[in-house]
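hi! just following up on the protien thing from before. the input was this:
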Amino acid sequence: MTPLRVALVTNFMPPHAGGIETMSALLADGLRERGHSVRWVASAEPALPGHDARVTRVRAWNPLEARFQVPLPLWGPRAVASLTAAIRHADVVHVHECINVTTWDALLIARALRRPTVLTQHVGLVPYDGMLDRVQRLAYRTAGLVALGMVDARVAVSPHVAEWFRSWGVRSAFDVIANARDERVFRPATSGERSAARQALGVTGEGQRVVLYAARLVGKKGVDRVAALWPDVARRHPGWQLVVVGSGPLAGRLASLQSTNHLGQRPLEAMPALFAAADAFWLPSRGEGFPLTVQEALLCDVPVVVSDDPSYLANLEGTSGAWLCGDSADMGAALEAAVASRRDGTLAAAASRRWARASMVESYLAVYRRVLAQK
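and the predicted 3d structure came back as:
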C-alpha cells in the first residue's frame, strides 16, 4: 500500500512524562517501521525547542501544570507556523484530547487546508475538585463537543470513555483502540534480572517485598490514598518497601512515609528493571483513560492493585492478577493477596494478547485509510 504522511499533534512529547507521550512515541515508531512518514509536533518542555527529521518541538507557555497540575500548554505564532507546515505536508492529521488548545490549533489549520482528521480521546472528566472541575465540564460541553463533531474519526482508548461522551450527547461513532505497550521491552524478568533489580534497591532479605507505585505525583493518581494507607501496611509488614517512582507537586505527601524508597522521575527504559524488582504494582488513581503503567506491570507478570475507577472496571474487571478496590480496607487486603500471588508467566501472556503494539498500530492505520477514502 501507498505510504502515508501523518501529522501527529500532542501537548507534549518525551522527555515530558505522561501516558499520551509514551503511547504516541510507540505509535510513531510503529508507523515508521511500516514505511510511513510521521511528523510529530508538540511542546518542547522540558527539552529545548528544535526540529529534526522526525519531530518538531515548539516553544510553549505552560503556566497551569505547575500550579494546578493541568498540562495545558498554549502555543504562540511561531509554534502555530511550525504546526501549519507539518499539516500542509500531511495526508492525515492525528490529534489527542478534545479540549486541548493544541488540538484546536491543529483542527482549524487542518480544516483550512482540507486535511482529514482523527482525534483520540484518552479520558473523560478528570477529578481536580472545585473550580477546575466546573471549568472542565464547561469546556467539554462547548469546545469538546464541537471538536468531536468536526473530526473525521473519533477514537476512544477504552469503552468507558466512549460511553461517557455518548452520555454527554456525542452521537457520532467511536472506534475503540486500546493503548499498547511494547511487549518486547515489558516482559517477565528472568530470575537473574529479578535478583539484580532487587539488589539495586537494597532488597536482599528472604522476607522482603516490594510494592511499586509509579505515577505523576498529582491528585488524580491517588497520592493521598497511598499516604493514608501505607503506614498501616508498613506497620503490619515490616519487611515491605514502597518504591515511589515519579515527581510532581504532591511529592511531599509521601516524603515522610516509613519503609519508603523515593526514586523520583525515572526514564522509560528504567521501568522494566523496577517491575522486575516488584512483587505488586499499586495505582489507586481516579479519572483515568487506562494507565499505561498498569499494562506494563501485567506484561511484566506483576499483579496490580487499583481503584474501582470506571477505567479499571472497563478494562480489568475479571482479569486474573488485578485487584479492583473501592475502599482502603479492601485495598490493604488486596495488596497482601497480590504480594502473595504466584508469578508464573500467566499474567504476561494474557496481557501480551490484549495489548501488543502491532494491533494498536494496525488499528490506527485502518482508521487513517478509512478517513482518507471518505475524502
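The CA atoms of residues 107 and 124 lie 20 Å apart.
The chain has a mean pLDDT of 92.
cheers
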